[in-house]
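pinging the channel bc i need a second pair of eyes. not urgent but kinda urgent?? the chain im working w is below, pasted from the shared doc
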Amino acid sequence: MMRRLCFTLDLADDADLIAEYERLHQPGGVWPEIAAYIRFTGVDRMQIWRTGTRLFMISEVAADYPRPAPHALSDAAARWEALMLRFQRPAPDLDGEKWRSMHLIFDLDAHSPASHNNMPPAKRTIGRTGLRVSEIGFGAAPMGNLYRPLADTVARSTLATALDCGLGYVDTAPYYGFGLSERRVGDGIRGKTGTVISTKVGRLLHPASGTPATGERHGFHNALPFDPVYDYSYDGVMRSYDTSLDRLGLAHIDILYVHDIGRVTHGDRNEEMFRQLTRGGGFKALQSLKNQKAITAFGIGVNEVEACLECLDVADLDAILLAGRYTLLEQGALDRLLPECARRGVSIVIGGVFNSGILATGTRGDNTPCYNYAPAPAAVLERVRQIEQICDRHQVTLPAAALQFVLAHPQVASVIPGLDSPDRVLAIRHFHQTPIPNDFWAELRQAELIRPDAPLPGLELA
């Protein structure tokens, strides 16, 4: 249950205090750090009005407000908190019209990077649909407690920070936490206009028999009490769509992806599963939903190129969510898949941009670098070390290079890293905006660490 708090702040006739207050609220690079902190403490809405040096603040807060910060405050958030605590005093709950007659200087919902010098990610179009998505999106697998449990409060603040930063495309799936990710995502974006949502079909969630374990299942911790069951048929796709709407609490889904079709996932059963999509009507169901405008676009979400080519032969896809197969380490998709997508007007959404971690962590940390969901083999470690050496020479961070490399390809519409904290959202935004000199890309190409036919930021193909 939300409760309402009202405060008054009097900065007195102190020019330095007023200047500090205005610095913290004006357009600039510190706002997302402050917004992430405010939201994490349990504030849902906050508005501040000003008349002279007197300020009036009204907030709607959660029952457990104020929540302790999960980590050390950034400098900007600490300055903001110090200023608020020093000068705010409880105030009567004044009539709303009296508040609105003053000058509104601050609105938590309205203050986002879209109105700041820190521009949000540009938008790109999905296929021929006209649907535009932010080129940096939000991968919501961590919202389903992938690899580790994520508190509800952290999940909420992470998604809120992403939306504040302009990451307006959110990708989830029934499989992520067996419904948990969809529920959290729906709660986070419901009522907010301009957010594009994608989810997936191919698995139905059946109530778990007996008492499901509260630990780890299929990589998800403390997931909801359901078991995933493959079903790519017409009825399976329609049921998956309907139940996703229920879990999300939304009336419309923008993009539906067929999840994890292919031999890597299904082995000897792949032909059976693929027949469900073709003869069993799975692709027909997706086309029917698009024709009815129940969805705007559909495609597949996989981590193998061959499955993409097989599906392109039998369905009119709008997009492919490709995980880990077009990255700074892997460019095999340039052989057939990306040219075929260009010919057909199919967009690529990149998942697994860091190849399961090694392109984010590098090789120099204390933890074992992971590649493709396993410890990185020696050849991959050596290749990454060579890339790191070039990064050092040009003062470029490895994750910034990995993120910006894939966005240089014209078929790529968005990159959707999995994000599990406000800090990681802010880091991704930083990697996206970090300037990288052309000489860095030229040296990578000269060292044959990326293919000669791979498009590069700021460079023409040789």
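so The first strand starts at residue 3 and ends at 10. and Residues 111-117 have pLDDT under 50 and may be disordered. — does that match what u expected or am i reading it wrong
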